[in-house]
Structure formats: structure tokens, C-alpha cells
Write a structure and sequence with these properties.
The complex is a heterodimer of chains A (115) and B (112). By secondary structure, chain A is an all-beta fold. Helix content of chain A is 0%, strand content 55%. Chain A has no helices and 11 strands. By secondary structure, chain B is mostly beta strands. In chain B, 0% of the residues lie in helices and 54% in strands. The chains are: A mainly beta (115), B mainly beta (112).
Chain lengths: 115, 112
């Protein structure tokens, strides 16, 4: 199956710092990548959809200046949490989908803890 | 912020028995459905998918059933094993929509 690599798997940072999370499709070209956030015992909440070479589309209520998304190539998307605060602590997961495909393949997730 | 006190619907099943996980979806325009398995602190893992022009699809030890009349999806796991313990999510792709909408999730606990 298709492999999506997400890094780092865990990050602890101080309040006010920025954190970058990378998502890579290793064996296919991902025309579309998605970023999700997940709270304990809850489902995945879509934050934004990014298409290679264009601006990300953010879901309602997600601050685009807070969560910067870049999808500069067909195999890499990044999510930067800017000026992180304790309420940003969560599990962030990316997924990738090839052109013309429906299946989203997920990364392993990143546990962000902001102190 | 994070919510507390939430409990996922939980299915406890004896090892070797069959499991059935149910999901109600909301959009009658949805034309594609996926089941994912998620273990603790990991990303969701694709299990099986089905298109709306089918009502049943089988994989290895898993079967997905789709009832469009009542907008219901189920996942059957045969001979459940301890490694099947996880949270299972159904997801629907609304026709023409770029996105997947995820269900709330069901916790499966396999008792050895």
C-alpha cells in the first residue's frame, strides 16, 4: 500500500514558539494532502486541504495565520503551528491522496505538547 | 480545547468470535465509503472501501456492507484477533466533494 511519512512523531515546545510538521508521500505523488486534528476519544477533525502548488483551503473556524500550510511539491506538505499555546496541544495527522484516487493514506501522527 | 468525559461506543468481543461494527452516515449523496482502523497514538490505517453502486465487498477477514436505503454501513471482522483491538472509523466521500467526513468511531476490545 501507499506510504505516508509524518515527522516528528512527538514534539514538546514552549508557549510562543513555532512548530513545523512534515508530511511526505514516499511511493506515490500526492496531488492533495489533508491536515487533521484529533482530540482524545474523538474523531478526526479536518483542518485544511492542500493541493500541490496552490493555497490551502481551510475549514471554517481554523485560523490560516495560525496554522500555515505549504504544499510545494507532489510529495511534501508542511504544517506550521505559529506561536503555539497550550490550547494547541493535540494530535495532528496528515493524509495524502493521489490524483484521481479516493483513498486517503495517513501519516502516523504528531503529538504536540505546548508547555 | 480538549473535551473530557467522552466515551466511545465500545464493543468487547472474545478472541475468535466475529465482530460487527456499525456506522450511520448522513449524506445521501455520498458515493464512496472507507473503513479505517486506528491504534493508540497512530494514524488511521485503511481497511476496506466500497462504492455506492455496491452493497457488499469482502477483503481478508473483513466484509463491508452498505445499505443506502437507511444510510447504514457495517464492518464485519471474522475470527477477531487481539491485534484487531483498536478504534474503527467509517468515512464517507460526498459526491463531487474533495473531502472525507469521518464518523465518531467505535472502540473494539478483544478479550483473549
Amino acid at each position: 500500500g501507499a506510504v505516508v511519512s509524518q515527522h516528528p512523531s512527538r514534539v514538546i515546545c514552549k508557549s510562543g514558539t513555532s512548530v513545523k510538521i512534515e508530511c511526505r508521500s514516499l511511493d506515490f505523488q500526492a496531488t492533495t494532502m489533508f491536515w487533521y486534528r484529533q482530540f482524545p476519544k474523538q474523531s478526526l477533525m479536518l483542518m485544511a486541504t492542500s493541493n500541490e502548488g496552490s493555497k490551502a483551503t481551510y475549514e471554517q473556524g481554523v485560523e490560516k495565520d495560525k496554522f500555515l500550510i505549504n504544499h510545494a511539491s507532489l510529495t511534501l506538505s508542511t504544517l506550521t503551528v505559529t506561536s503555539a499555546h497550550p490550547e494547541d496541544s493535540s494530535f495532528y495527522i496528515c493524509s495524502a491522496r493521489g490524483e484521481g484516487k479516493n483513498i486517503q493514506y495517513f501519516g502516523a501522527g504528531t503529538r504536540l505538547s505546548v508547555l | 480545547g480538549e473535551s473530557v468525559g467522552l466515551h466511545l461506543p465500545t464493543l468487547s468481543v472474545q478472541e475468535g468470535d466475529n465482530s460487527i461494527i456499525n456506522c450511520a452516515y448522513s449524506n445521501s449523496a455520498s458515493d464512496y465509503f472507507i473503513w479505517y482502523k486506528q491504534e493508540s497514538e497512530k494514524g488511521p490505517q485503511f481497511i476496506i472501501d466500497i462504492r455506492s453502486n455496491m452493497d457488499k465487498r469482502q477483503g481478508q477477514r473483513v466484509t463491508v456492507l452498505l445499505n443506502k436505503t437507511v444510510k447504514h454501513l457495517s464492518l464485519q471482522i471474522a475470527a477477531t484477533q487481539p491485534g484487531d483491538s483498536a478504534v474503527y472509523f467509517c468515512a464517507e466521500n460526498e459526491g463531487g466533494n474533495n473531502r472525507l467526513a469521518f464518523g465518531k468511531g467505535n472502540q473494539v476490545v478483544v478479550i483473549p
